[in-house]
Write a structure and sequence with these properties.
two-stranded antiparallel ribbon; mainly alpha; about 120 residues
Length: about 120
């Protein structure tokens, strides 16, 4: 019979909220920039002028950022529920932050955080 410690192996060593916020902000900036720049150049190449070169790329960028945040929140709800089920305490971490969390379940059923490749 497995003990409770076997199921919660390494579960409390999750990334800090600060680190998760940084990566969410980084993704928002990248997605927003790509969502603006790609339509801007495409519309310019098609020969559209002035208002189209400002408003349409802004709408595209806003839609992509909204999609990113919505998908992170949906993923976060699932990850947070699984984290609780394995015995973790998600107190103080929002669904959006949990959407950024990466984890793995080992073959023997334990929760584990991936180890960083930086050698820390």
């Amino acid at each position: 019979m497995k003990s409770l410690d076997d199921y919660i192996y390494d579960i409390h060593n999750r990334p800090s909220n600060r680190e998760l916020r940084f990566w969410i902000g980084f993704q928002v900036v990248v997605v927003g920039a790509l969502g603006y720049v790609i339509p801007l150049f495409s519309l310019h190449w098609l020969g559209l002028r002035q208002w189209a070169l400002v408003f349409i790329p802004l709408l595209c960028a806003a839609a992509l950022v909204w999609w990113l945040l919505r998908s992170l929140k949906r993923r976060g709800v699932k990850t947070k529920a699984l984290y609780r089920a394995y015995g973790g305490d998600p107190a103080g971490t929002s669904d959006l932050l949990f959407g950024q969390v990466t984890y793995k379940i080992t073959p023997d059923g334990r929760w584990s955080w991936p180890t960083s490749s930086s050698g820390d």
